[in-house]
Structures are given as structure tokens and as C-alpha cells.
């Protein structure tokens, strides 16, 4: 297909398509003549993935490029792809305090979780602890065990969602497809949780504070 058709089918402007190609996010099309390039269905699928990472996942273009490069690198194990995807997600603007980092590490160790010191979640957790302290609400840390239990359930669901693709790659299947599954599950999974949490909060609030609303007497 020509770039105009690719633009129409993907909803992405031709200028953006050319930009993604220049930045290495989108493979170049096939030159078929002077000033003429053809694109395939694979380009359309890749473009939709790019837009999902940027528009829905909220990744900057540079971060999306790193994630896509990890997908494309056949020598990158899937664990490294996961780490790259996690690191690409938005991080605290200011580095957390050493004291909160220690508290985060102690909390993780206390739960028996196996997480390396470079896991970006430690910095995010420490940043939240700092923010609570800044507004005088360190008491909110009491909710951490409940959130951690929920995080365990979510993490297992994450792995269940990608396990088939991952096991397939380890036994000679499509490694790129498995890597893409890991990335989509990680990046879009964060936004999925935000959406579900908002809905669940309204539901929990209604059940707790308006238990008889809508029920016939």
C-alpha cells in the first residue's frame, strides 16, 4: 500500500509516519520507484503498536523507541524486554530521598519479594512515601500491605496473560510476538489498572455509602 493508504487505515498522518521511520520506530517501506514507497500489513500492525504505546501507554517517543528496539533485538531475553518496558514507563521527576528508598526496600524484603535494586517500582514507591510525608499523611502507609496483596494478584494475572506466548518463544516459537505481548501487557496494563481502579472506586463508594440506592423497598 502507499503511504496515503497507510495513513488512512491507521489514522496517523503521513508526516508522523515519516517521522517514526526516521526515528527507527517504524521499518522503512520498500522503494518501488522514484519517490515511491510501498508499505505492508506488517507496517500497519507496527504503526498501531507505536500509537498504542504513545497514545494509550503515555510513552514519550524516545522511550517507545527503546521498547520497540528491545522487541526487535533477537538476543534480548524476554526478562530484559520486561525490564526495558518497565523502565520506559513514567518515573518520578525528582529522585526520592534515601530514607524513603530504604523504607521501600525494607517493605519489599519484608514481604519476601524478589526484586532487584534497579526495579523502577522501588523509586516510585519511595516517591509516594516522600509525597505522603510532605503533606503530613505518613499514616497512609498503613494501606501498603493491602495494596501489596492486590499487587500480588495483579502480577500473577499479568504473567498468566503472557505465559503462553513466553513459553512458546522458549520452545522455538515466535520470539518477537512474545516480546510484543510482554510489552503490551506491561505498558497498557498500567493504564488498564488505572481505568479499572476508577470504576471500582465508584462502585465501592456506592456500596459503602449508598447501600440501598436503587434497591426496591
Automatic annotation (TrEMBL):
Keyword DNA-binding assigned: yes
InterPro entries the record matches: DNA-bd_dom_put_sf, MerR-type_HTH_dom, MerR_fam
Pfam families named among the record's database cross-references: MerR_1
Cleavable signal peptide: none
Keyword vocabulary terms for this entry: DNA-binding
The keyword Ubl conjugation appears for this protein: no
Protein name: MerR family transcriptional regulator
Organism: Kineococcus gynurae
Amino acid at each position: 500500500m502507499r503511504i496515503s493508504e497507510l495513513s488512512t487505515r491507521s489514522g496517523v498522518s503521513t508526516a508522523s509516519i515519516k517521522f517514526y521511520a526516521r526515528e527507527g520506530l517504524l521499518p522503512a517501506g520498500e522503494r518501488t520507484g522514484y519517490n515511491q514507497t510501498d508499505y505492508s500489513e506488517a507496517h500497519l500492525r507496527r504503526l498501531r503498536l507505536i500509537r498504542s504505546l504513545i497514545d494509550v501507554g503515555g510513552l514519550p517517543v524516545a522511550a517507545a523507541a527503546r521498547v520497540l528496539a528491545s522487541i526487535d533485538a533477537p538476543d534480548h531475553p524476554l526478562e530484559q524486554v520486561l525490564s526495558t518496558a518497565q523502565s520506559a514507563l513514567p518515573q518520578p521527576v525528582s529522585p526520592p530521598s534515601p530514607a524513603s528508598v530504604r523504607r521501600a526496600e525494607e517493605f519489599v524484603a519484608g514481604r519476601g519479594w524478589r526484586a532487584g535494586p534497579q526495579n523502577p517500582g522501588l523509586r516510585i514507591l519511595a516517591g509516594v512515601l516522600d509525597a505522603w510525608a510532605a503533606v503530613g499523611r505518613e499514616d497512609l502507609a498503613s494501606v501498603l500491605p493491602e495494596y501489596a496483596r492486590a499487587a500480588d494478584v495483579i502480577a500473577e494475572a499479568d504473567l498468566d496473560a503472557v505465559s503462553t506466548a513466553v513459553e512458546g518463544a522458549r520452545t522455538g516459537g515466535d520470539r518477537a510476538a512474545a516480546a510484543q505481548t510482554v510489552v503490551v501487557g506491561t505498558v497498557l496494563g498500567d493504564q488498564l489498572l488505572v481505568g479499572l481502579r476508577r470504576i471500582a472506586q465508584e462502585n465501592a463508594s456506592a456500596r459503602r455509602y449508598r447501600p440501598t440506592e436503587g434497591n426496591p423497598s
